[in-house]
Amino acid sequence: MKREVAELKSRLDLWSVDTEIDVPAWVAESHALCLSLVYSPEILAAVQRSGDLASINLPLEYLEKARSDARQRVVAAGLRLGALLSSNQD
User: Fold this and answer.
1) Residues of the chain with pLDDT under 50
2) I want to staple 58 with a disulfide (CB 3.0 to 4.6 A). Which of 20, 32, 62, 89 is the partner?
3) 79 neighbors 17 (Cβ within 8 angstroms)
4) Closest to 20 in 3D by CA, of 8, 29, 9, 10
5) SS (H, E, C) 13-82
């Protein structure tokens, strides 16, 4: 955990997040990410088949991109939560 936190802190590109309180924009960002990454052709093909869900062999590039995007979303969520909590104290 400490190693992961240290890595997140060192990635300055993750910290340039718009923290303006605009929940619909945040939802739109997540939706766009789902459309561009999560709903890949491999995943859609697997879940649209009838019967039990088969194993999906995702390419390494997909997994690396998903990991990077997930980290970015976690940092953004933390910063935005902080902005929300700060705004409620006014």
Assistant:
1) none
2) 62
3) yes
4) 29
5) HHHCCCCCCCHHHHHHHHHHHHHHHHCCHHHHHHHHCCCCCCCCCCCHHHHHHHHHHHHHHHHHHHHHHH
